[in-house]
Design a protein that fits this description.
Blueprint: H1 3-15, E1 25-36, H2 38-45, H3 50-63, E2 70-74, E3 79-84, H4 90-112, H5 118-125, E4 129-144, E5 147-151, H6 153-160, E6 171-175, H7 176-179, H8 184-190, E7 197-203, E8 207-215, H9 219-233, E9 238-245, H10 249-256, H11 262-265, E10 269-274, E11 285-290, E12 293-304, E13 310-317, E14 325-335, E15 338-346, H12 355-383
Parallel strand pairs: 4-6
Antiparallel strand pairs: 1-3, 1-4, 2-3, 4-5, 6-8, 7-8, 9-15, 10-11, 11-12, 12-13, 13-14, 14-15
């Protein structure tokens, strides 16, 4: 046996499950959420924050995973997920697709609320939305160093299905490979909130490829209803605390943006983990050990307007009860030696159906923000 034959055998063994066929292929669900309008938004917005926003949106798609999907690759404006084994039920799949779409749109709404932001203005003018392509077939799985590579005809099919004859830019497309695994009554029931329509597209080397699709637009009614309910309980889906700090605004910003100092003033924080070589850059991520858990943060932007008002923004990840949250630190000069800090947490929705749980968590989070600002004022007073 030659070296190449041995390497092939090792890769085949690493990528094959016990139930795989003799050809080394395994049944797999392939799912691609694709951001529509991505290229136009990057090119025409002219905003330096646009690539960071798209990166955040791709992260939102990954965080919305509730089907134990694996990320195979990120392709600019899309994520290729896969899951080996039997297909999920139509109900499970629709729940996953709805979660992806709603989390995506909720995050866009958070950004759009900043009416003074040029990025928000670009979003209004150059709308971003989402399409989701689903296929079920067979794949070969190979390990190439630390990477997993999916190969086979069905991987080509799911990518080709991104280009199709469906009108509009926000929809779920289900290949015949997936719909053939589901009883028709269950498919109809899972899509009772919209219309599941037949379609087909001809692809070179593949041929006529039938599928079914459903527009996601009806879910915008849920977004509007959720927003109205949240605003009635807590206007603007935001928590806000204010406090005067006994230092100038630029000094306060240096303390707030210094990751190393975060445990000195964030309530319950005991340690912070980050790449020292990247500290101070926009887009830098760090983890804070808070109480008995951990919160992931990422710096998003830092702006100063013509009046000297400073806005520093961080994104909060893996915060399950408040998904897609942003933390705004707004600093305004009071006089030469002090500034007013407004700390505002903006969130898309509270991820609980129980009213008492939502109310209790909002109160708890408000106390957390208030206690943190109080400790920050004490810290800068000592250092000032």
């Amino acid at each position: 046996m030659g070296v190449l034959d041995e390497l092939r055998n090792q890769r085949r063994a690493a990528g094959s499950a016990s139930g795989s066929a003799a050809d080394g292929q395994q049944p797999a669900l392939l799912l691609i959420p694709d951001i529509s309008g991505f290229t136009r938004f990057i090119e025409e917005s002219g905003n330096p924050q646009a690539p960071f926003l798209v990166a955040d949106l791709l992260e939102i798609l990954i965080e919305a995973n509730i089907l134990d999907l694996e990320v195979n690759e990120i392709q600019g404006d899309a994520v290729l997920f896969y899951r080996l084994g039997p297909p999920p039920t139509a109900e499970e799949l629709v729940r996953q697709c709805r979660r992806i779409y709603l989390d995506f749109q909720n995050y866009l709404r958070l950004v759009e609320r900043d009416t003074g932001s040029a990025l928000a203005a670009s979003l209004h003018e150059l709308a971003l939305t989402l399409k989701i392509v689903v296929h079920y077939g067979r794949v070969s799985v190979a390990r190439i160093r630390e990477h997993t590579k999916l190969m086979g005809r069905d991987v080509i099919v799911v990518h080709r299905l991104l280009k199709n004859n469906v009108a509009g830019a926000e929809y779920i497309l289900l290949s015949e490979g997936y719909t053939s695994t589901q009883p028709a009554p269950e498919l109809a029931r899972a899509f009772s909130w919209t219309r599941l329509l037949p379609g087909a597209t001809y692809y070179e080397h593949i041929g006529e490829t039938p599928y079914h699709y459903a527009h996601l637009s009806p879910l915008r009614l849920l977004l509007a209803a959720s927003s109205a309910a949240e605003q009635e309980a807590r206007p603007g889906c935001a928590l806000k605390v204010r406090r005067v700090l006994p230092v100038p605004a630029p000094y306060a910003l240096r303390v707030i943006s210094n990751f190393r100092l975060r445990p000195r003033w964030m309530q319950g924080a005991t340690a912070v983990h980050y790449d020292v070589s990247k500290a101070g850059r926009l887009g830098t991520s760090y983890k804070a050990d808070v109480f008995s858990g951990q919160i992931d943060f990422q710096t998003v932007q830092c702006l100063e307007d013509e009046d000297g008002r400073i806005t520093y923004v961080e994104k909060i990840s893996h915060f399950r009860l408040f998904p897609n949250a942003l933390l705004f630190y707004c600093l305004e000069a009071v006089d030469l030696d002090s500034c007013l800090l407004t700390l505002e947490l903006r969130y898309g929705h509270v991820a609980s159906t129980h009213r008492l749980i939502r109310f209790g968590q909002l109160r708890r989070l408000h106390r957390f923000l208030g206690g943190s600002v109080q400790q920050l004022a004490r810290l800068v007073g000592e250092r000032g």
